[in-house]
Design brief:
single chain, alpha+beta, Alpha-D-Glucose-1,6-Bisphosphate, Chain A, domain 4, 4 helices, 8 strands, 26% helix, globular, START-like_dom_sf, ATPase
Length: 168
């Protein structure tokens, strides 16, 4: 399994990882609710709600819920998120703004939003995924790093790799 490479460039958190699956498949599991429900979120979390309108201007709305009793205070907690798609190039690129939200899809006050650009690159029959998350300020970037964003994405992408192996 390949390791995630992570670096900060200015106000951007850049994450890269190679997945042992064709680019079309990796793109597909990011664009369909039934796939996202299987792997989105850190270990011990499930996605009971996930709706996607996968087109520019469309909205992705989801809820992650912690079902792992070993995660202490997080157990039973729900975390809602909303993505608004700006640009989609089939099989190659997805650009969206990511927000913390509530169950109705209202953006959470005082929480940083993120402009996310995901690139799906052909890599010797595998797929190199490059995620660039741009924040409005150094403080916003620090806030999400302090919340454990890097660890959460590492676990999410581990689950993505496992899901890709199961559907390949």
């Amino acid at each position: 399994m390949s390791k995630m490479i992570s670096r900060v460039e200015g106000l951007e958190l850049v994450l890269e990882r190679v997945f042992d699956a064709p680019r079309e498949l990796v793109f597909k599991v990011f664009s369909e609710a039934e796939h996202l429900k299987q792997w989105w979120g850190p270990r011990g979390w499930i996605v009971p709600v996930c709706t996607i309108d996968f087109r520019p201007g469309g909205i992705w709305h989801y809820c992650m819920k912690c079902v792992d009793e070993k995660q202490g205070d997080f157990f039973g907690m729900e975390s809602w998120g909303k993505g608004v798609y700006h640009e989609i190039v089939d099989g190659e690129k997805v650009v969206y703004t990511d927000y913390f939200s509530d169950a109705e899809g209202n953006e959470a006050e005082g929480m940083p939003s993120t402009l996310v650009t995901m690139l799906f690159e052909e890599y010797d029959g595998k797929t190199k995924l490059v995620s660039r998350s741009k924040y409005d300020s150094a403080e916003a970037l620090k806030t999400v790093m302090d919340m454990g964003m890097e660890q959460g994405i590492t676990e999410t992408w581990d689950r993505l790799e496992e899901h890709l192996q199961s559907v390949k």
